[in-house]
Amino acid sequence: MGKEEADLRIGEITRTTKETNIRLRWNLDGSGRYTGSCGVGFFDHMIQAFCVHGGFDMDLDMKGDLEVDCHHSIEDLGIVMGQAFSKALGDKGSIRRYGSFYIPMDEALGFCSLDISGRPYLVFDAEFANQSVGTLGCCMVKEFFRAFAFNGGITLHLRCPYGENDHHKTEALFKAAAHALKEALEPNGGKILSSKGMLA
């Protein structure tokens, strides 16, 4: 039996700029469902994998200035996802806080280690051979995770030590991030995991 609606950790954010219009609802305690589209097909594939592997439900209604390129859309979605995550989580108490995970994706290996600390930081160690995968600029993978980490209050380390196919490398990183986040979000028996008595 799933949690009652009142007990679910849900964040809803609406953000409108001259470049993007985004409405997002993120249920951290979902079943792995993603509806909607950011307008960038390969990135929708990544977000869907992120939801499936993290056990998240995400409903997205979004329009961006894709006639320019994908930069504003991908970065702004990272901002909104970080804000929705922070809102859904609340005071960050009573969770495991830390999560780490390796994901093999054929010839590629992705690794994520993170701390839901309230102190945002990003270490991103991955190189791509091509300029893009589909209509997603590969440089935007790092920009997305930076926006997500800094708006979600997450210390986030991502690494792809080897791989040949940029699709596989990117997907390994997103799946690793999803599993690490799922692990960090698990209940911690009501105890705040900090010698300070608080996370921030």
Automatic annotation (TrEMBL):
Keyword Nucleus: no
Superkingdom per UniProt: Bacteria
CDD domains per record: IGPD
Metabolic or biological pathway: Amino-acid biosynthesis; L-histidine biosynthesis; L-histidine from 5-phospho-alpha-D-ribose 1-diphosphate: step 6/9
Annotated keywords: Amino-acid biosynthesis, Cytoplasm, Histidine biosynthesis, Lyase
NCBIfam families in UniProt: PRK00951.2-1, PRK00951.2-4
The name this protein goes by in its record: Imidazoleglycerol-phosphate dehydratase
Organism per entry: Blautia pseudococcoides
